[in-house]
Amino acid sequence: MDPEYSKYEPVIGLEIHAQMKTISKAFCRCSTDFHSSPNSNVCPVCLGFPGTLPVLNEELVEFIIRMGIALNCKVRDLSIFARKNYFYPDLSKGYQITQFETPICYDGHLDITLKNKEIKKIGITRIHMEEDAGKSIHDFHDDESLIDFNRCGVPLIEIVSEPDIRSSEEAFLYLSKIRQTLIYLDINDGNMEEGSLRCDANISVRVKGSSELGTRTEVKNLNSFKNVSDAIEAEIKRQIDLIESGGKVSYHTMTFNAKDKTTSATRTKEEAHDYRYFPEPDLVKVRVDDNWKKKILSELPEFPDKKRERFMSEFSLPYSDADEITQDKYFADYFENAAGKLIRRESRSYRIVSNILRAEVRRVLNEKKLGINEFNLSGKVIALLADSVASGTVSVTASKEIFNEILDGKDESEQISIFRKSEEKYSQISDTSEIESIVLRILEENPDEVSRYKIGEKKLAGFFVGKIMQASKGKANPKVVNELLLKNLETE
Ligand SMILES: [Zn+2]
């Protein structure tokens, strides 16, 4: 018999590591460029040579405070760094600089919107600063491993949530919103594949209604949204199966195997950590005064939720359109730019711009695997196309053809000249006499269908409309076609 999964409730907290987009590393002047050749971005400080001293990167502090404010956290006036001691081949210093007892940001929350539009508050326990370790590469040789120290000392922030998440869907929504916020704040590139955003999940289960927490396990290093969802699902199922078969969950660090979608415990030896944390003696305390906080606050961009509300009121977009467009800050900027170039600034035109962006532009970006910043059509050309649809010069169907044609334009002026030609080519025929001649011709060519229509087979109207539209190459105004068709069928 299948275990009664619905009897149980999962309790989930996420720890997210986000690499900060600072130019240099956390405690030295080395570059943080991900694409540099191995071991080229290193110096005595980030390699931990004896006698060298770290100096804190001010930009890192500024970035983490931005995130702290965005997640409604308290920002500590005075915080310190700690050493986390452990041996690992890719950590040449033998310790990692992190924050332990006094994280700079703490006690915040983030609202997520559930499928049923209900708002759920996820508590943020803390956000702290730390440095990354290097990277061991095992797959070049069978009997040798390589180490790249470029990542050593790259600045990270760790965002730790309260165990407020109750399903893999909620975890997905929370992670998406964290990623979106990081990108809006321009402090992280959101790239999970390259590892600049990584996630660990703490998971336990308990019988529904119970207020006690079950024993948790920690699934490490989830590097895609899909893996986060799949790993949480797999681990919940594993724990329930274990309990239902009479076993007990014990604390383990787990790894997720994406191939067969299972979680398994890593060797217990690796878990027996005693990091011997102590205050980092080489760094001074981090002091954040009110003026600095105020300055950062005044420079913050508009947050996604606010932007969505504004798009709904300013451009009369429905919730779903505004929500989709504001998911990505740059996509939202692109919309605003195009909307600002419209001749007819009215809700119908804004909606057409929204439709073109969400359908045509999105399709091209997906096909070519591009970000909106790399997209070649200017906002002005999109506005011209939307104006043309709004005024009835071209039909929605024709606008898709025109869109594809202007994609070939190398720059704005070339795109505009292609647009002008295409618009003329596809402009709708609304001239009644021209359309009527097509209508009459089609009726004449299909006498059988005409008589069948006349004895009651009214659905044949669709057949005639199809023929007429085809004959006009899609340019006949459908409204006029319908009117003239009915007039002629009824009187003939
Ligand atoms: Zn360095």
- What's the tally of helices? 15
N-to-C CA distance? 71 Å
The stretches of 5 or more residues where confidence is low (pLDDT under 50) are none
In total, how many beta strands?
Answer: 16
Architecture overview:
With 492 residues, the chain is of the alpha+beta class. The protein contains 15 helices and 16 strands. Helix 6 packs across helix 8 (347-368). The longest helix is centred in the C-terminal third of the chain and has 22 residues, at 347-368. The protein has a nine-stranded mixed β-sheet with strand order 2-6-7-10-1-11-12-13-14. A three-stranded antiparallel β-sheet has the order 5-4-15, with no helix packed on it. It is elongated. Strand 13 (253-257) and strand 14 form a beta hairpin. It has three domains: 5-292, no CATH class; 304-426, no CATH class; 432-491, Orthogonal Bundle (Arc Repressor Mutant, subunit A), CATH 1.10.10.410. The protein binds zinc ion (ZN). Zinc ion binds at residues 25, 28, 30, 42-43, 45-46, 153.
